[in-house]
Amino acid sequence: MHYFDPFPKVKYDIKRNGKETLVTDISLRFKIRDALKKRAAVYYDYIIQDGDRPDTVSWIYYEDATLDWLIFLVNNIIDPLRDWPLNHNNFNTMITKKCGSNSAAYSQTHHYEQVIRQQSVLFDGTIIRKKVVVVDEGTYNSLNETDRDVISVYDYELGLNDAKRQIKLLDKRFLSVVMAELENVFE
């Protein structure tokens, strides 16, 4: 099933020439019930790999490439062009357009950080993440070298892109529940 299949149809004058055409009413939005969203056992974590596309992830997991909309819905992805991580080549193209080259992006400072806590690993293997706060250049310069970081434009953009890689996938066992609810909403 494609996402828009159960949506209602309306007559609309697309060309503004007095002739109405039957079109899908895309102004409606389906939402997975909050009760289902809050149940951790319903989802599992997935890390998007370089080159993964929504349709290929959908095919690998759900054996249906047309269920890519479900991945968007679960992860509140409104604009797949901006909210899905860029692959390596597209990321480098974006950096080149923005800064001229990768080396220029590395040499440009985006911001300064004060390290509040270094990353550490507990005896049981639990990772305590590094904690930082953004500071101005004057504060940065007053800190010890071990307590500060300078973040380049390249590293900043890479961090934003990599943050998009962590998504949730709906467990296949709950696929029929969501599909039935989708059909019920638009009856």
What report would you give on this structure?
- The protein is α+β, with helices and mostly antiparallel strands.
- The protein has two domains: 9-85 and 164-185, no CATH class; 109-162, no CATH class.
- Helices cover 37% and strands 22% of the residues.
- The chain has helices at residues 34-37, 54-62, 68-74, 80-83, 88-99, 102-107, 137-142, 153-163, 175-185, and strands at 9-12, 21-24, 43-47, 109-117, 120-121, 127-128, 131-135, 148-152, 166-170.
- The strands form four sheets. Strands 7-4-8 form a three-stranded antiparallel beta sheet. The protein has a two-stranded antiparallel sheet with strand order 1-2.
- A hairpin with a 5-residue loop joins β5 and β6.
- α2 (54-62) packs across α3 (68-74).
- The protein is extended, with a radius of gyration of 22 Å.
- The two termini are 15 Å apart.
- The model has no long low-confidence stretch (mean pLDDT 88).
Q: Any key phrases for this structure?
A:
9 helices, two-stranded antiparallel sheet, 187 residues, alpha+beta, 22% strand
Record field, number of beta strands = 9
Helix run count: 9
Structural class: alpha+beta
Query: Mind summarizing the main beta sheet?
Result: 3 strands, antiparallel
Any chance you could write out the topology, listing elements then pairs?
Blueprint: E1 9-12, E2 21-24, H1 34-37, E3 43-47, H2 54-62, H3 68-74, H4 80-83, H5 88-99, H6 102-107, E4 109-117, E5 120-121, E6 127-128, E7 131-135, H7 137-142, E8 148-152, H8 153-163, E9 166-170, H9 175-185
Helix pairs in contact: 2-3
